[in-house]
Amino acid sequence: MRKHQTGAALLAVLVVSISLSVLMGYTSIRMQQRLAVAEAAKVKLTDLAAVTQKLSELTYLLATQRITAAGVSQGSNAEGIKKDDDGHWLYQLTNDELRADGHKYQASGVEFSIQNESGLIPINSSTQYWLKKWLSSNGFDYSRKNKLAAIVADYADPDEIRRPGGAEYEVQGPGNYLLQSCRELLQLDRWRTLLEQQPDFINNCTLRRTPTLNLNAVPNHLWQDLWPDSAAKISQARETGSWLLQDNDFLQFEPGMLSLDSDLYSRQGGRGFRVNVGTKSASKAVRIQIEHNKNMSYSVRTVR
Questions:
Q1: What is the extent of the structural domain holding 81?
Q2: Around 24, how many Cα atoms within 13 Å sit in the side-chain half-sphere?
Q3: Are strands 121-122 and 205-206 parallel, antiparallel or unpaired?
């Protein structure tokens, strides 16, 4: 009887011990999971603070510093911001610029880029030269590119007159008004198919109405689309700090530009910027518009 009681007691102790071990193991796992979640939240909060700080810094530079053909000055080179007695800049570049052609920078674990929208394709412009140029460069023949351009024009104009090859009555949505987002192109049947094959066009598109393309702000990947033969040369020139500063500078890269209407290109300009800042766990993308007035005011909105 005593042996049976002792055995039962040992068995009970063993069962309790196993139960406690399982419970402790489960508790330990749960604690580790909670600690991991807390640590991840801490890292994300730290990253978000770093992203916000860098975004504020870049916004301040765009709103207060000189914009040149190379980008936005960081205000660190006093020589580069000197003026003559008539108030004109002594130098075309400040030589301390952050590039505004979408170039990606790395600093203290934060990646960021600035893109001047004047270097992107304007789809709200009545002159569709650059849109058609991009379509041609991506293999669309004369008929197909004109149809795609006509669809955009019909969608954006205020009337109900359908252009040849257009689609005044085929779209769903507001229509008959300027596009408010490049993603509205996804509402157009033929464009939806195109964007499934060429999704990067959304990032290469801008809502500007002016037809002028700032050649110094064209991102390298878009230059590759428009002028593939000179893409490597222009990329290398930018890496070494060489920018198109005179009207004939671009002829060494693209001689065919000589016959292009001067209203369609520039070497500088544009007050709308897309700024992207991110880390491994946090990111922000905004559009910054600098206004022309004495106070150099600016507006910021999130990019979608």
A1: 73-302
A2: 6
A3: parallel
- For the stretch 119-175, pLDDT in tens is 999 999 989 999 999 999 999 999 999 999 998 988 876 655 555 555 544 445 555
Residue 304 structure tokens: 């979608």
Q: With 60 as the cut, is the pLDDT of residue 224 above it?
A: yes
| Residue 66 identity | R
Instruction: Identify the CA nearest to 288 among candidates 110, 120, 55.
Output: 55
Token reading at 230: 């000179």
Q: How many structural domains comprise the chain?
A: 1
Residue 66 maps to a domain: no
Rounded Cα distance between 217 and 210, Å, is: 15
What's the token pair of residue 50? 């770093």
Instruction: State the Cα–Cα distance between residues 174 and 178, nearest whole angstrom.
Output: 10
278-299 pLDDT, tens digit per residue, is 999 999 999 999 986 666 567 7
| Burial state string for 138-177 with b = 16 or more CB within 10 A and e = fewer than 16 | eebeeeebbbbbbbbbbbbbeeeeebebbbbeebeeebee
pTM score, whole prediction: 0.82
Q: Helix 142-156 crosses helix 189-197 at what angle (to 10 degrees)?
A: 120
Strand partners, 114: 275
